[in-house]
Amino acid sequence: LYAFLWFQPYYDEGTTKVRGLAAAITAWFATCIAILSAMHHGAETAETTTEDILALLIGGSGLAVLLARNVIHARREILLSKPIEACENAFEAELKVRFYIQN
Questions:
Q1: Sequence-separated (6 or more) residues with CB below 8 Å from residue 79
Q2: Over the stretch 24-49, which tens digit does the pLDDT of each residue have?
Q3: Which of 32, 52, 84, 90 has the smallest CB count inside 10 Å?
């Protein structure tokens, strides 16, 4: 997820945002499944209800979407404000030029 949001492999900004948000939601759901699995592992009774699980999934996915959106936007702004000489590698320079052309 981090690599996808940080390196933004798509040339179209809209595609990058949609795929980044989908990746964030998928990662959040996987995290929720791991947490719930750990909570119920070895437990005699399941004390969590369906409402608790839905609140965790839906509420947290909203936070995951906001975080992913902010990371994508921040990375774009960081690259646009960075001089081309300060880019750490060719990929970062290419990404900066791509963002510059799209603006």
A1: 87, 92, 95, 96, 99
A2: 899 998 888 887 777 776 555 556 66
A3: 90
